Amino acid sequence: MADLYSRLGIARGADDATIKKAYRKLAKELHPDRNQDNPKAAERFGEVTAAYDLLSDKDKRAQYDRGEIDENGNPKMPFGFGGGGGGQGGFRQNHGGAGFEFGDADIGDIFSGIFGGGARQRAPGGGFGGFGGRPRKGADVGYRLQVAFEEAAALKPQRVTLASGKTIDLKLPAGVENGTQMRLSGQGEDGPGGKGDAIVTIEVRPHRFFQRDGDDVRLDLPISLDEAVKGGPVKVPTVEGAVMLTVPAGASSGKTLRLKGRGFHRKGGGRGDQLVTLMIDIPSDDAALKSFVESWKASGNPRAALGV
């Protein structure tokens, strides 16, 4: 029996993209709907599909490369004993407009547009389910969900609409960040073995003045000269609304103050902080301030620690 790489016409060290490209090319050429009078093409279609099912699974491919399983995914045992194997569902990645997005079909629905849905039928010799394997679940469907920075930090539920038209209130997980994936069981495409899943990839939109630092949120806060000199309460924006922060008297630009529990929720529980860096805003055309400074001389050398 030809090894899986030879079935797809690729080298053993091929990357995932090369494997997928080779499979797509062969599957289009060999699909039974295009070769109804050629049973050998249908048999070959089953072989290349079984090869792709195994090689596209990272763990199974590693086992195969180490010689632990055979071309059907069965453990290699003495005297040729072994059980049957089956395939796994495909994945379709979608992209689209603002907010919750979909479109741009991938492997899971590649044949439906070409053959009128025939790709979901089991081919002779195993087809999409492998050789004697269990019925294949429907394809997973991928989505990208854009979430506002403040809503991600506060774990505000997101209402999303799936391609099926079903609306779901999605609860964001603690520790959510760019690239976080959420699996919605049974919300994918139909298949002989049941529905696939929906895979939601989160994209946290950048904010115009907040910045994320791990689970903390950073903010540069402008304050006036008199607020820095005299100190006192000032209003500060946070991801969940404005709060009052006490500026210590004699504060300098660059001093960082901490608002506890105003950051992102941590995976292990608790919450990060908001780190507020003070930035003294000096007006360039304040005559009274200029007159005061001309008659006032600061004591000490603020650059003494620098040796100048």
Overall description:
The protein has 308 residues and is an alpha/beta fold. It has two domains: 4-204, Orthogonal Bundle (Helix Hairpins); 211-283, Urease metallochaperone UreE, N-terminal domain (HSP40/DNAj peptide-binding domain). Helix content is 22%, strand content 21%. The protein has eight helices and 13 strands. The strands form four sheets. Strands 1, 2, 3, 6 and 7 form a five-stranded mixed sheet that branches. Strands 8-9-13-12 form a four-stranded mixed sheet. The chain has a two-stranded antiparallel ribbon with strand order 4-5. Helix 2 runs antiparallel to helix 3 (39-55). The relative contact order is 0.09.
Please outline what is shown here:
The chain is built from 8 helices and 13 strands.
Tell me the layout of helices and strands.
Layout: H1 4-8, H2 16-30, H3 39-55, H4 58-65, E1 91-93, E2 100-101, H5 112-115, E3 140-147, H6 149-154, E4 158-161, E5 167-170, E6 181-184, E7 198-204, E8 211-213, E9 216-224, H7 225-230, E10 232-236, E11 243-247, E12 256-259, E13 274-281, H8 287-294
Parallel strand pairs: 1-3, 3-7, 9-13
Antiparallel strand pairs: 2-3, 4-5, 6-7, 8-9, 10-11, 12-13
